[in-house]
């Protein structure tokens, strides 16, 4: 009689690995594809959104440029007649900023620096709203240049600190880093910062790298100088920023001068800042 041989059942460790069977590969493939599509969509959306924001700001700049009124002709007063006194002491809104002010009353000025992309409105609120919002108050990664909430405006204080993002594509305040090169500074040594009522030009005093320090650090913190109460305090501030400056601009300031400080992120250290200080 023929003996029937029973097949031995394979034990668990002898079974072929099925972890990467076709169904699992399919799930992994779908996951990878979905992740790629989502990432690509986010990148495209971010780029498109950035382009829209930049286009919107360029439209505002065009409105300002198109609205600039030529200086009024000089009128000669005939002998024996006196020039009439102004009927009002109220400041007159510059025509080129009227439409923008009517669109958003948070605007307090306009900043422009030759040789860079900096040509933007400057905003002011009691918080950091425009760090993450555009001129139309919609959420924005680029934001809009804005004045430190601790500063005073209309009239402006001793030192007006203006912040702007350092965007990778060179927009907002990224162009300030051009001033790291002294040759760049020599080509454009001034900054234009208009208020809504007056066109103004500022001479650059110092260009330096710094950082946001801990409150406990007993070091010079340039960002805490807002309104000078004495000659000594003002002179001490000027001496400190001149000492930090990457090069000597040959420009200084005296007590009573109005200053602006442009500040953006820098990556030479944690919480780094790139700073340009100028005087009116």
How far apart lie the N and C ends?
116 Å
Name of the CATH architecture of the domain at 93-279: Beta Barrel
The CATH superfamily of the domain at 93-279 appears as Sortase
What is CATH's topology name of the domain at 93-279?
Sortase, Chain: A
Query: What is the element string, with H for helices and E for strands?
Result: HHEEEEHEEHEE
Average pLDDT value?
82
> Helix fraction?
25-40%
Q: Please work out how many helical segments DSSP would assign.
A: 4
Account of the 3D structure:
By secondary structure, the protein is α+β, with helices and mostly antiparallel strands. It has a domain at 93-279: Sortase (Sortase, Chain: A), CATH 2.40.260.10. 27% of the residues lie in helices and 18% in strands. The chain contains four helices and eight strands; from the N terminus they run ααββββαββαββ. Strands 2-1-5-6-8-7-4-3 form an eight-stranded mixed β-sheet. Helix 1 (22-67) crosses helix 2. It is extended. The chain starts with 21 loop residues before the first helix and ends with a strand.
